Structure formats: structure tokens, C-alpha cells
Amino acid sequence: MNLLTDSLKDEIRECYSRFLTSRAFNARYCQRLMIAEVARQLCETRNEATETYPLALIEAGTGTGKTVAYVIAALPVARSRGKRLVISTATIALQEQLVFRDLPDIQSNSDMEFSWALAKGRRRYVCLSRLDALLQEGASGNQALRFFEDEFASPGEEDLVVYQEMISKLASGEWNGDRDSYTETVADPSWRKISTDRSQCTHRQCSYFRNCAFYRAREKLIDADVLVANHDLLLADVASGGGNVLPEPADCMLILDEAHHLTEKARSQFSAAVSLNMAMTHLETAMTLSQQLEVSLQAVDLLPQLPGFSQLEQLTDRCTDGGELLAELRLLLNQFYEKAIPSGRQSRFRFPCGKVSASLIEQGQSMARLYGSIIQLLELWHGELERAMPTADLAQRTALESWIPSLGGLIARLVQAQRLWDLFTQEERPDLPPRARWIDFSEDDLIVHCSPISVAETLADSLWSAFEGVIMTSATLSVGGDFSLIRDELGLPLQVRRVSLPSPFDYADQGQLRIPEMQSDPGKPAEHNQEIAILIPELLAEKQSGLVLFTSWRQMQFVISEMQEPFRSLIICQGELTKSDMLDKHRQHIDSGAPSYLFGLASFAEGVDLPGDYCCQVIIAKIPFTVPDDPVGATLYEWIDANGGNSFEQVMVPTAALRLTQAAGRLLRTEQDRGIVTILDSRLRSRRYGQQLIRALPPFTLVAPG
Ligand code: SF4
């Protein structure tokens, strides 16, 4: 049954019509189709028994006007059902584009009355408590915060100057504490010192709570009709049970924009890693911190009120046992060093099919249990310290405010380590994909990793069945109209609605596809790199502008190193500047009439919008197959093959097709653009899958090889 009533349809139609009239736009066919799809799918009824939910995958290319379509359709539907609309996108930059540009534009031109708010993680806001503490204590730092060098290294003089400016701007109201709205770029190490996470925040107990930038932003979420989140925040929220930062999933309809990023984001959200050196340091920190904490609490006469602290000795014993267990684990794990394969500056050993020996499982489980017992003690103390806050005098409060975050930070680090050993040693159902497990060996440390290869089950439980309705959209979701890859990766039901909207572009007229005859086999990188290093300058010289996409850093550097001046000076290469500075510099060169060419890796295959003369050609150096040393991909392929599938055909080729389509999508950004895509990979002609990859690309006119 569908709940899309005539009055709801009329309301949506009128909003759209007002928007078009106000902006003096003509209705776009693909945009109208998208509005109809979003409204209809969100109005489908749920059926828990048959596990049928209002879900749709909508592929809508550049030029559709996706944001206008989904907001104008989804907001009236959500309201009519008493739900709120959550829009999640891949990056903070895209969130800001929605909040500061698209939503105000839609509201003012459609006359729809609605409010919106930006939802970001706590780490994107300054922590006033930390900022103030650092400014008061200066370069000497805070005794309680000095335990974690990765986060709390003492600030340098330059940092202190920036922090002082920040406090002035906060006081004058020029800045709201949001990192992304600060006038200067703040480097990550400097920002980490003045931001915090959930585990180290003292919440309502904090002296700065009323002025806290994060909580002020959070308040705006309470009543907003539209909440603009990002995938990391959304996944972190659902991973912690849902309803912590965003409203309860059952009270929301969800739009996932840039939905093609969700699988990777979810894998990273649900994975874990631990460095053995760091793990040892944290156990030592637990002992030192507890001793210093006791002295500090004694000094302000708090110890008698905190009975849990009588168990200090137990903590020392457990941490000592933990250190011994870690040493034994290191011995066991070091046995794999001989079999590790060099990967960059380190060596990597991957457990075939994610399978781990019984002795390692036993040892890992013991470690996880020991972590559990240490965490239990620390949480007991943490709770006691928090409960002591309301009745504390000034000296006691000062001590508590500096020790509670330290204890919280320590607990969070131990919980992460415990999670790694839990996941690493978890028994898996034979009918479900295993986790990938691997060790990275560096000169004096080793890092143990565990990551799901499939997030299908997790997402099915936490997103698809939990939200009232979900629309997933992106310019690239299907391989030539086949959505099986993303549907299976995301754990969507077989019958999920899948729509590929027509593009507003006339690809055959606007774009050409060229696959030159080449001598080299891309499977032999040295020969292939030599050949493309000769071809690329010749191809680029045909046009005033271009984007060249490489599959590896090494490949890009080799091509650059082979280039001669003055042509070399026309190249703007990834790594020389930030991405946005590269794009600005490129536009300036083109605007001044000079040629300019951008060289980049995979991140330049999306999020790069260069219309008209800014990008007359895209050159793709090689088919972007998954790199062979990706442990998650390798474990996935093993599992598929071991279960009678064909990982190359089922996953590797479709994934490469999606990446190739994304890369080719940089060429045409408006209906006026013209240009050519060149792919320097002879396998497109010589291999059977080559035709499949070509068919998945937009229907450019295929030109004879030159
Ligand atoms: S409430 Fe938390 S985030 Fe805000 S200032 Fe206090 S400790 Fe920092």
C-alpha cells in the first residue's frame, strides 16, 4: 500500500512550481522524476513480517538537481508522518554546502517553512574547558592531561598565540567554536589539543557547559525539521545504539546522499586496530595515573568519599598481568613476521580467510577479559568522581575537572583495545563473511587489525529496518544500470526499488571516448608507465585544460619525473598544494588564458567540479582495479571464491567499472560542456571484461584509436 495522498502530491507540486518560478528555471525531466520517486518510495508502507521497508536506490547524474528534488519531495512526506528528515552526506564540506547554500536557497524560493541544523561530531568543536586549561597552564601543560602524548602533548608558543586569538574571538562573538568556521586553517595536532570526545567530556558537570560550542550546536538539533549529518556521524550514532546525537531512527526519514561512500565508511566504523607498543604504554599509564590521582584526591581531601579507590592495588596487579599477556602476544604475533610482505615502510601479514590459530584466539580472549576487568575498576572510579562533582568545593572541583577527562580518555583507549581483541578472536558463522585480520609490522612495533569485509548485516539491522524510510542517492550507484554490487554490499533486500534516472546530458554529442592503441601491458607497470609518460604530454597538448587520474602515487611521480620543461610547469600535481588550492590555481591559470593540467589520484575522481573550459579532457592512466595489498579486499575475494563465486567477475570488475564511471564523470558538468575522455589501458580492447567496462561508461561517442 502507498500512503502518498493527492493532497501531499499537490503540496509537493506547488512547492516545486514556486521554486522553479522564483528561480526562473524550467522544469527538468530527471528532477521531476526524482521528486516523484522520492515521494512515492518514502510513502510505501512497512511490513515487518516480510521485511519490506520504504527503501530506494536512486542514481541521478550531474545536472539533475538532486538536492532540490529530495528536499522538496521528502520534507512534506516526513512532516505528514510526524517524522524528521535526516540528510547524511559523505563529507563536512558537502554538509556545509547543504546548510549554507542549498537549504536556504530552497527555503527562500519554494516558500516552504522549515528549520535545519548541522550535526557534526564533538571533535569539530572547540572544548572550552581544554582551551582554557591550556591557556592558563601554558607550555607547562596540565599534570592530569599529560598522560596521552598522542593527544595532550604540551602546546608550543605558536599554538598558544592561536589559542589566545580563539578565546578573544569566542568572547567577542566573532567565532562560534566550530572548527570549520574558523577564519584560519588549524593544523590537526593543534586542534586535537583543544577538542575532546565523548569519553573525556564532563557534560553537564563541566564549568563551561552553558557556553560549550558543541552543546550549543546540539541544542539546535532538538527542534530542527531537517538535520544535516555526515555518514561517519550517522554510523557512529547507530553503532552506539542510535538516538545519541541524532533523533531515534524510528522518528526519522533518511536521505543518504553520496551513498556510494557508505560501504567504505561503514567498514572503517566497524573495524578496530591496536598498536602493541601503545597498548603497553596505556597499561603503564593506568598504573601511573591511578597513583597520581590518589595523591591528588588526597590533597583536596576527597579520598574518604570515594570507596572504590581502596582497590588501587588490584589495578596495579591487573595491569602487571596485562603487560605479561601482551608480551606473550607479541611473541606469538612475531612468528608471522617471516611471512609478512613488504608494504610501503612496513610489512604486512594477512591471515588467509581471516582465520586465526587456536593459541592466538586463546591468548587474545584472555587479553580481552583482562581489559574488561581493568575497565570495570576504572569505570567505578570515574563514576565516583562524577558523583562527587556537585558537592565539591572549588579546589576539589578543579582537581576533578582535570582528572575526569584523563580517566575517561584512558578508559576509551582501553575499550578500543578490548574491542580489537574481542573482534579478533570472535567465532564466526561459517555461512557469513569472515572479518579480515592482519598485522602491520614496523621497525619496533606491530599493529593488529580487524575489519569486517561485509557490512550488509550490520546496516540491515541498524539502518534499513530502523529508519522510517531511506532514500540512497548518488551519481554512480550502478554498473550500466545493474545495482547488484551496491545492493549486496549494503545488505539491501533483493527487491529494493532501484532507479537510474536519465541524464540531462547528451553524452554522444557532448563527449568522446578514446582508447589508444598501446604497446605495453598494464600488468607490467614499468613498461606501461614508460609508455604513458610519452603519451600523456602529447594528449594534454591537444587541449588547454585537462585532468589526469593515476592509480598510484608511484605511477604519477614517474610520469612527472619524465616530463620536460616548460611543459612540466603547466602541471599542478596532487601533494604540492591542498585540493582546493590546486583547483583555485588551475582556474586562475585557465582564466588568464594559460594552459593548465591537474594530476591526481583517486580522490580527484570525485568532488572535482570543473565546468566548461576548466576541463576539456580527462585522461585515465589505468583501469582502477583494487590494489592487491588491500587486506579487506583480498579476504573478501578469498571468501567469495571459496564459496563457489568468482570474485573477479562479481566484485573486482564491477568496482573498477564504478570507479571508471566516476572518473569519466569529471568531464561533463553542464549541458554546454564538450570534451574527451582517454583511457590508457589496452585491456579495455583485449580482455573480455573490457567491453563490460566500456558499456558501463556514459554513452560517449567512441572515437577511432589514435
Ligand atoms: S561540556 Fe565537554 S566539550 Fe563542552 S567545554 Fe565542557 S568538557 Fe569541553
3D architecture notes:
The chain is of the alpha/beta class and 706 residues long. The chain folds into four domains: 6-115 and 224-266 and 455-500, 3-Layer(aba) Sandwich (Rossmann fold), CATH 3.40.50.300; 122-218, no CATH class; 271-452, no CATH class; 507-703, Rossmann fold (3-Layer(aba) Sandwich), CATH 3.40.50.300. The protein has 25 helices and 19 strands. The strands form three sheets. The chain has a seven-stranded parallel β-sheet. Strands 15-16-14-17-18-13-19 form a seven-stranded parallel β-sheet, with helices on both faces. A five-stranded antiparallel β-sheet has the order 6-10-9-8-7. Strand 9 and strand 10 (446-452) form a beta hairpin. Helix 23 packs across helix 25 (688-696). The longest helix is centred in the middle third of the chain and has 32 residues, at 394-425. The protein is globular, with a radius of gyration of 28 Å. The termini are far apart. The structure holds iron/sulfur cluster (SF4). Residues 122, 127-129, 196, 201-203, 206, 208-209, 212, 214-215 line the site of iron/sulfur cluster (SF4).
